[in-house]
Amino acid sequence: MINKVVPSVQAALHDLFDGATIMLGGFGLCGIPENAIAELIRLDVKNLTCISNNAGVDDFGLGLLLKKRQVKKMIASYVGENAEFERQLLSGELEVDLIPQGTLAERIRAGGAGIPAFFTPAGFGTEVGEGKEAREFNGKMYLLESWLKADFALIKAWKGDTAGNLIYKGTARNFNPLMATAGKITIAEVEELLPAGSLDPNQIHTPGIFVQRIFQGQHYEKRIEQRTIRRME
Fold first, then answer.
1. If exposure means fewest CB atoms within 10 Å of the residue's CB, which of 52, 80, 189, 233 is most exposed?
2. With a cut of 70, which residues of the chain have pLDDT below it?
3. How many Å separate Cα 188 from the centre of its chain?
4. Could you tell me the pTM of the whole model?
């Protein structure tokens, strides 16, 4: 069985280049590849096109890349928690493609499945549909949307084995499994790295065939984007 383990995040991202298109897993700050993002900052790669559900917050996640002006274009569905993102968007410093969340997920899934385009009703009659082909099916209008693929998919999993099989935990599953299929090179960072054959095959969410490199992550903060608590009686 092929061993896909690399010794560090530095080894995992050694060939990442300026102008790359990168998918980054996560939803808000949940399930984001913290180690990989830190390495992108250290490498100081520029003109990145980032595909992610969101742009992180000002001082964490993808927000750190925005602060250093490393992102040329952001393809996302939600960016409401990042003031720096808003500033760069309104000033014209950042190119932005905002996509309905379900459409974003399906475009990524289509990229991984080899489906170049599909029709969806989401966005018809709005700015989302401007310049796109529209077609009627059974009396309802649909937009033609194209697949999304990336040079690199950077994802985060709970457990993985040396063959690249992955298990996600709870809501950290989110966009990670979809993106794992849609990168030319998929790099997984995991909290627990186990020998091949250690994972129950029935529990695996991403088969190792989709993963090219895997490494043991370290020092996860796992920040909570919006902490809501109940007042003690």
1. 233
2. none
3. 11
4. 0.93
Token look-up 């913290």 returns 34
DSSP type of residue 231 = P
**Residues 13-37: pLDDT tens digits?**
999 999 999 999 999 899 999 999 9
CA distance 135 to 95: 28
Superfamily of domain 9-118+148-216: Glutaconate Coenzyme A-transferase (3.40.1080.10)
Phi, psi of 220 (to 5 degrees): -75, 130
Unique residue bearing structure tokens 């499945």: 113
Sign of CA dihedral 221, 219, 205, 185: positive
| Domain range summary for the chain, segments of one domain joined by + | 9-118+148-216
Task: Say if residues 142 and 117 touch (Cβ distance below 8 Å).
Answer: no
CB 147 within 8 A of CB 111: yes
Which residues share a beta bridge with 74? 50, 96
3-state secondary structure 171-217: HHHCCHHHHHHHEEEEEEEEEEEECCCCCCHHHCCECHHHCCEEEEC
CA distance 43 to 56: 19
